[in-house]
Every structure is written in C-alpha cells, then in structure tokens.
C-alpha cells in the first residue's frame, strides 16, 4: 500500500494525490504539516531531512520532492500515457515539470504569501509588485506555449506536466489582484476539468 505523508491542502501534496487519481493508485494519507503532526521531529526528518511534505512510502521505498514523486509513480504504476517512455516526449514533459518547480514557483512565492496567506513577513508593497510582475511574465510564457499547442502544456495530450502546471494556474486565478487576460491559459484550465483528479485536487477551493 502506498502511503502519502502530508496535509491535503498542500499544493505539493495535491500533485501526488492528483497523480494517484489519474493512475488509479490506492493510497493512505497521513496528515503532516502546519496544523497537524510536525515535520521537524526526528521521526519525520528520518524520512525527509528537509522537513517538508510530501513524502511517500511505497512498501519499504521512501521518496520526497513532489515532482520526483509523481515521476516515480508514473514510472512504477503503468503511467506511460502520462509520462511516455519515448525520450523526446519525456524530455518535453520534464522540461515543463522543472520549469514549474523552479522558475514559475519562485516568481509567485512572495506575492502569494503576502496576498493569500497574509504572511507578516511578506507585506512590502514593492516586493509584492515585483513578484506579481515576475509571475505575470512567466504566465505569459505559459500563454505562448498553450497558444502554440492549442491543447496541453507538453503537446496534444494531457500529461504529467499538466498536474503541477494546473495547480499553479489554479493558484494564479485564486490570488486577488488584477489579472491580465490570458485567453489560452483560461481555455487550458477549462480543459483540465475533464481529468480524473481535477475537481478533488485542483479546483477544490484550495489555492
């Protein structure tokens, strides 16, 4: 049995849960993180020295880092429809997975923490404005890609890359500021509604 450690509201935990839904993987989930069991304990740090969720335990195998986890699940549980073995198709998916985890996430972090989480440490107006500008620039990159594919982020079909990207788009629309009009992104988000895990793990009221 696969066990997922992490609270269900976490965007990174939801990547894993959405992937499980698409691949029809049964799992048990344990609540860890803010408001639940603490991740700075020796018990949790023995699983992930970074003290972050999610972590999975698949029998005796332990893995952390959300995008690594979803790659593993697709490889382990017959997920070639989401993560093809063909090296070119897989590389294109990996490109967008890595972009989401690094460039896109880094751009929205300050603004999201300030505007949605109301973090006292993220209330400098100039920093919020700079974060929103960077976030908008990266969403413009996504808009260009989706305008080219007219479908999903890595091409014609829904893939593993659309899970973290979809969650980031949900966060974009859920953050209160004046959004520029990105028609391709809006249409893409509508298309994601046809996926198995979208309602439960993406557009579920949690940014």
From TrEMBL:
It comes from the Bacteria. Keywords: Transferase. The keyword Transferase applies. PROSITE patterns: GST_CTER, GST_NTER. Transmembrane segments: none annotated. GO terms for molecular function: transferase activity. Gene3D superfamilies: 1.20.1050.10, Glutaredoxin. Pfam families: GST_N_2. Residues 86-207 form the GST C-terminal domain. InterPro entries: Glutathione-S-Trfase_C-like, Glutathione-S-Trfase_C_sf, Glutathione_S-Trfase, Glutathione_S-Trfase_N, Thioredoxin-like_sf. Residues 1-81 form the GST N-terminal domain. Belongs to the GST superfamily. This is Glutathione S-transferase domain-containing protein. It comes from Caballeronia sordidicola (Burkholderia sordidicola). The lineage of its organism: Bacteria, Pseudomonadati, Pseudomonadota, Betaproteobacteria, Burkholderiales.
